[in-house]
Design a protein that fits this description.
This protein is of the alpha/beta class and 406 residues long. It has 14 helices and nine strands. The strands form three sheets. A five-stranded mixed beta sheet has the order 5-4-3-6-7. Strand 3 and strand 4 form a beta hairpin. Helix 4 runs antiparallel to helix 6, helix 4 packs across helix 8 and helix 10 packs across helix 13.
């Protein structure tokens, strides 16, 4: 049945890649554009449940399950869009990654990767199935009630995988070290110096002996595991340094290293997790995206504010809090910091010095008021995110915007 002129809608997105996304704090939202069909996908490792919500109809239509393979998805797209109709798809962000998103967008449709924590859920709903989840996604996507996450490109995702692999390896080394220290403590062998895992500590470990051969073997296995983890950690660190040479966001990394407490690893972690930081309209959006803003529960005349929300990207938030601890001391330009900031633009160095004066004073002010040191450092990390945004805008050629917002 042919549609009349009044029933036709604009189904073609600019560039043939789907509807452009509107940036908001914490992700992206779909622009208001009319589609005939909104498709909700409940994605799992082996299957994808498909549901379609038609414009003007109340209930979504369940289309069953398909295998989670590129060929099956291609057949689904071809079958659902025989007349070349542009559809709007959505699925929850999860362990299956962004391959499905890239395949759908490459086929000319719109696709949104939805933030699971921001999906509206009915409090009294106690039934959860793949079918109901797919129908819920289709219905909410049609209503515009879903918030999408930022999807990195393939280069950005590769750098992020490398950064997260190094972080995982560092955690693995810490676990092995705790196991080794616990083993030594159980047998009364305690290193009496303050600093561990130095050359002196290594020489002390070489002299540790146990009465039973089996215990000596266990001890040596722990030591070898720690050495292997350290070598893998150092290897991933060298890979990060090599990857920086060809990365398109390398100028941003070099500019951020002018900030106190932000070395190569911290800067690469922040940029790998956030991508183009200048995409945020103002620093408050970045602070909210990182979960560094206070939580609040206010009603009527009562106003209650609690700890930080801890939403958004936890990897970048951890890196910023670690960097914030260096602002406990008075502001000064050390030789190491000046040498690290040589590649940064002059304007970025000026912003970094202004940040150091502001944040060092801020920490001392909060501690003098009786705040805990962890609370003061968290507040410093929140403001540090604003200066990072300003430097990123300066490198991206948006210095006028940063000057008007900071």
């Amino acid at each position: 049945m042919k549609k009349s002129t009044a029933e036709k809608v604009d189904r073609k997105a600019p560039g043939g890649t789907g509807t452009p996304a509107v940036e908001v704090a914490g992700g992206y939202e779909r622009e208001d554009r009319a589609y005939l069909r909104y498709v909700g996908l409940d994605v799992h490792k082996k299957t994808i449940a498909v549901s379609v919500a038609y414009a003007g109809r109340a209930l979504p239509e369940y289309r069953g399950e398909i295998p989670n393979t590129p060929k099956a998805v291609e057949r689904l797209l071809r079958r659902m869009s025989e007349d070349g109709e542009v559809m709007s798809f959505c699925y929850e962000a999860g362990p299956c990654g962004y391959g499905l998103y890239r395949q759908i967008v490459a086929s000319g449709h719109e696709c949104a990767v939805v933030a699971p924590s921001l999906i509206p859920v009915k409090a009294g709903d106690r039934v959860k199935t793949d079918r109901r989840d797919a129908q819920m996604l289709a219905r909410l996507h049609r209503a515009g009630e879903l918030t999408s996450v930022w999807v990195p490109d393939e280069e950005q995702e590769a750098i992020r995988d490398l950064v997260r692999a190094r972080e995982d390896m560092k955690g693995a080394r810490q676990q092995v070290r705790r196991q080794l220290n616990g083993y030594l403590l159980r047998h009364g062998k305690v290193y009496d110096q303050t600093r561990h895992w130095t050359q002196a500590h290594g020489r002390w470990l070489e002299q540790v002996k146990f009465n039973h051969s089996v215990q000596q073997i266990v001890f040596q296995e722990y030591v070898e595991s720690e050495k292997a983890a350290t070598q893998r950690l150092q290897g991933l660190t060298r890979e990060m340094e090599r990857a920086l040479e060809n990365w398109t966001l390398a100028p941003v990394i070099e500019a951020l290293m002018a900030l106190r407490g932000v070395d190569l690893l911290n800067a690469m972690t922040v940029v790998a997790e956030l991508g183009d930081i200048s995409r945020f309209d103002n620093p408050r959006q970045l602070m909210a995206y990182l979960g560094l803003v206070p939580s609040e529960h206010s009603s009527g005349g009562t106003r209650r504010r609690g700890g930080i929300t801890k939403t958004g990207n936890g990897h970048a938030r951890r890196a910023l809090v670690e960097a914030a601890w260096s602002y406990r001391f008075p502001a000064r330009k050390t030789r190491h910091l000046q040498r690290r900031a040589e590649k940064a633009p002059q304007r970025a160095q000026a912003i970094a010095w202004a940040a150091q004066k502001r944040l060092c004073g801020r920490y001392q002010h909060l501690v003098a008021k009786g705040k805990l040191t962890v609370q003061a450092c968290t507040a410093v990390a929140r403001e540090l995110a604003g200066f990072i945004w300003a430097i990123a805008c300066e490198v991206a050629g948006k210095g006028n915007l940063a000057a008007s917002k900071v």
